[in-house]
Amino acid sequence: MILAIYGRKFEDKSIPMVNLVIDELEKRNANLWIYAKFHDYLEETLNRKIEAQRYEKRADVEEKIEALITIGGDGTILDVVSEIQDSEIPILGMNTGRLGFLANNSKEDVIRAIKCIHNGQYRIDSRSLLEVSSNHDLFKENNFALNELTIHKKDSSSMVTIHTYVNDHYLNSYWADGLIVATPTGSTAYSLSCGGPIMAPSSNNFVITPIAPHNLNVRPIILNDSNTIQLKIGGRENEYLATLDSRSVTITNETIITIKKSAHSINMIKFEWQTFFHTIRNKLLWGRDKRN
């Protein structure tokens, strides 16, 4: 079993869980590759020597590993997505964060999750990505997102105006604090907090969700991801922010952004006891109303 590990700094309360992950992997004689900076952090934080090879970038491990384990929250997985790109390396998320819709393996799941990985008892959950292009070459080669593209105002109380087209047909001009175009995976992230709907990962859709729209009759809209969406930016100011998952750039009133479904996807590792419906029911506390 050859695995890579990538992670972020975690709180002290997560140390027992992270120790358990390392213990279980070592018990099964896993051949580990650990992201170099995270390897140093682990040995210092856990106060233990971890036998592993170190890597700096995807190319160091792409042809060697069977899967990649992230230690952190959903943001850690978003970091990894921009790194592994189209390599199709399966990702297993160990959750030391909060909600964890993607990194949904808690301390209680560690032992059986690693046992299943060792025995090959898992399935691949393929997650679609969105891809952006623009007249200003905004995100270079990292022009894709697992969650969403967001346009929002910058350093001003003035709203942004976003003229939106679907397959070159005019949809709407959004006067708002911003606009989100999300994948099904991203429907449980920023879009959800702005009143957007929850979409199952296999639904093959985009959702366009306005952020604090000026017109209260404007609502989120779901589109099949075979459509191409174009955004033309305007407003009283001349600088706004475009955010692609965790990466942000400054845009201006001359910016035109085109969004389509990416040709490649991201592979998440899931187990027999994990379903999307179980995850949202658990994370959103459905059915736990104390009045019932």
Structure, explained:
It is a single chain. The protein has helices at about 15-25, 35-45, 75-85, 110-120, 190-195, 275-285; strands at about 1-5, 30-35, 55, 65-70, 90-95, 125-135, 145, 150-155, 160-165, 170-175, 180, 205-210, 220-225, 230-235, 240-245, 245-250, 255-270. With about 290 residues, the chain is α+β, with helices and mostly antiparallel strands. The protein has two domains: about 1-120 and about 270-285, 3-Layer(aba) Sandwich (Rossmann fold); about 130-260, Probable inorganic polyphosphate/atp-NAD kinase, domain 2 (Tumour Suppressor Smad4). The strands form three sheets. A six-stranded antiparallel β-sheet has the order 7-6-17-14-9-10, covered by helices on one side. Strands 13-12-11-8-15-16 form a six-stranded antiparallel β-sheet, with no helix packed on it. A five-stranded parallel β-sheet has the order 3-2-1-4-5, sandwiched between helices. Strand 9 (about 160-165) and strand 10 (about 170-175) form a beta hairpin. The longest helix is centred in the N-terminal third of the chain and has 13 residues, at about 15-25. The mean pLDDT is about 90.
Order of strands, widest sheet: 7-6-17-14-9-10
CATH topology value of the largest domain? Rossmann fold
Average of per-residue pLDDT values = 92
Backbone structural class: alpha+beta
At CATH's second level, what is the architecture of the largest domain?
3-Layer(aba) Sandwich
Largest sheet: 6 strands, antiparallel
Number of domains: 2
N-to-C SSE series? Answer: EHEHEEHEHEEEEEEHEEEEEEH
* Beta strand count: 17
| Ends apart, CA distance between termini | 46 Å
Radius of gyration: 20 Å
What portion of residues is helical? 10-25%
> CATH superfamily of the largest domain, please?
Probable inorganic polyphosphate/atp-NAD kinase, domain 1
Tally of DSSP helical segments:
6
Class of the largest domain in CATH? Alpha Beta
